[in-house]
Amino acid sequence: MNHLITLTMAIYLGGAFLISLLWRENETVAGAAAISFVALSAITSVLLGIEVFTNGSILYFAGGWERPLGIALMLDPLSALFLIMTNVIALLVTIYSAVYMKKYTWTPYFYVLFLIMLAGMNGILISMDIFNIYVFLEVASVASFMLVAFGLRAEELEAAIKYTVMSFIATTMILFAIALIYGFTGTLNIARFMDASAGLTPVHLWFLAGLLLAGFALKAALVPFHSWLPDAHSMAPAPVSAVLSGMFVKVAGLYVIIRVTANIFTNLPQIRILLLLFGALSMVFGGLMAYGQKNIKRLYAYSTISQIGYCAVGLGIGGYLGSLGVLMHFVAHAFSKALLFLNIGAVEYVRGTVESDDLKGLNDTMPVTTLFGSTGMLGIAGVPPMGNFWSKLIIIIAAVKAGYTGIAVLCIVVAVITLGYFLKLQRTVYCNLTESPVKKEAPKTLLVPMGILAFMVFVSGVLLVPGIREHTLDKAVAVMENFSYVDITIGDNR
Predict the structure, then answer these.
(1) Residue 76: which of 472, 493, 491, 492 has the closest Cα?
(2) CA count, 13 A, side-chain hemisphere, 114
(3) Cβ count near 427 (within 10 Å)
(4) Alpha-carbon span 258 to 399, nearest angstrom
(5) Averaged pLDDT, 385-402
(6) For residue 452, is pLDDT > 60?
(7) Residues 6+ apart with CB under 8 A from 170
(8) Which residues pair with 74 in a beta bridge?
(9) The pLDDT of residue 244
(10) What are phi and psi of 58, to 5 degrees?
(11) C-beta of residue 312 within 8 angstroms of C-beta of residue 254
(12) In sequence order, what are the residues at sequence separation of 6 or more whose Cβ sits closer than 8 angstroms to the Cβ of residue 264?
């Protein structure tokens, strides 16, 4: 059973190989094959997640090498939650892509790159070796560079180049830190490094923590490391933007910050202050920048920066409530932001523009699409009873209890700003009636994934219901706060 945690990654890599080999000339067959491979991975991840949440973590040593030499792969409640979210959202996005991507040339290669990116993201989530996290991060990143530039327009190429350069800076810092970690401790296993780091001087710890935090904060697009995200997420095809904004920045950034930085350096509590600072800056800057955008995809991109700031603030606060708020916000935001990017992609597919001033009367011409878009906006804004309302409330309560009253007030202010720019957008796009509206709704293949995501946005708060929370979020919080996998991966070989 343990070796099955590699199955989702293997399915994606095998699928990418088969599509490039057998179906690269047939976009219809390539699309159907991609949907099948992603569906199989999504089902596998759900089954693995049920096993983990029911019976505990799954540990596997690659190649049969046992501890302490073996490369540890593990699925615990934290990584299982991210794995399920990643693959379920990927499935809906792939179904959407079957129609949306037909307007591009060489569509089969889109699916090849998309599956490779997903394989890298899945690899990050099951790795307990910091070098392998880096390798899978590079796999996912390189594929995402090409996906951003897939349309080959000048603006897309410019965005992809900026994204590539900034990512290169991040990965250089991360790789340098990895080399130093191995030089200082003789191990790349996260759990063993946690054990060995007690012997390092504060100077060494701070230097390593600074490199890793800066590198992964850039991947998460936290201010001031955010400059690549607005261009990349607004220029990429809508399905790519949905995954990048909905999941990629969380897996490649926030998740790895939790794994590698916030919990490894437990004897450097000042790191949490840095996360609070980065989070507060991101919330405010992203919210203010979103308010003035006319390009809707760019508005959503800045909104992502702002909402990722809430997660960083929750990590900075720590404790049970802070961690619970982070995970709830991750789930709710992932569904909402994926929905919004797919929604504006459907609008662009029908109307040919994403500029708010050119989309008057959308409520009359595309009523179903408008309904789904409004659901996503209200979800991000945190209107009850949607999940983002509860996640923001939990983070605010955690801040007050931890003595960060100013941060709590800032969270409330940014929530009001968020509601403000979404209401402004709705007034511009939905409420200005056209003289002679002609209804032309998006194709059903685009509407169905959006409808499922809209439903998930509305009901995501169910994860906090007693009886469900204890078996899902609480178990993931326990991993964040206690890092219980140390005993599993090190065992008796400390």
Answers:
(1) 472
(2) 34
(3) 11
(4) 18
(5) 94
(6) yes
(7) 214, 215, 216, 218, 219, 225
(8) 59
(9) 94
(10) -110, 125
(11) yes
(12) 190, 193, 194, 197
Flag whether pLDDT at 436 surpasses 80: no
Confidence at 493, pLDDT banded by 50, 70, 90: very low
What are the DSSP calls for 99-145, one per residue? HHGGGSSSHHHHHHHHHHHHHHHHHHHHB-BHHHHHHHHHHHHHHHH
Q: For residue 135, which amino acid is it?
A: V
CA neighbor of 7 nearest in space, from 125, 114, 105, 150: 125
In whole angstroms, what is the distance from residue 129 CA to residue 118 CA? 19
Give the residues across from 58 on adjacent strands: 75
Residue 483 has pLDDT above 80, yes or no: no
Nearest to 113 by CA among 101, 125, 103: 101
Residue 26, CA distances (Å) to 29, 31, 40, 50, 276 in order:
6, 9, 21, 36, 49
Which residue in 39, 18, 95, 60 sits closest to 342, CA to CA? 95
451 near 372, Cβ under 8 Å? yes
Find tokens 């892509």 and name the residue.
Answer: 97
Q: Are 61 and 73 in contact (CB under 8 A)?
A: yes
- As a whole number of angstroms, the distance between CA 79 and CA 84 comes to 9
CB 278 within 8 A of CB 311: no
The full set of domain ranges for the chain reads: 2-490
> Average of pLDDT values for 355-359?
86
93-114: b (≥16 Cβ within 10 Å) or e: bbbbbbbbbeeeeebbbbbbbb
DSSP letters for 453-485:
HHHHHHHGGGGGSTTTGGGTHHHHHHHHHH-TH
**Which letter does DSSP use for residue 67 in this model?**
T
pTM of the model: 0.93
- Residue 59 pLDDT: 86
**Residues 287-313, mean pLDDT to the nearest whole number:** 94
User: If you search the block for the tokens 């307007």, which residue do you land on?
Assistant: 103
Strand partners, 75: 58
Quick: pLDDT tens for 21-59. 888 788 889 999 999 999 999 999 999 999 999 998 888
Of the candidates 124, 73, 130, 52, which has an alpha carbon nearest to the alpha carbon of residue 489?
73
What mean pLDDT do residues 60-69 have? 68
Q: Name the amino acid, one letter, at 265.
A: F
Q: What is the pLDDT of residues 76-113, one digit of tens each?
A: 999 999 999 999 999 999 999 999 998 887 889 999 99
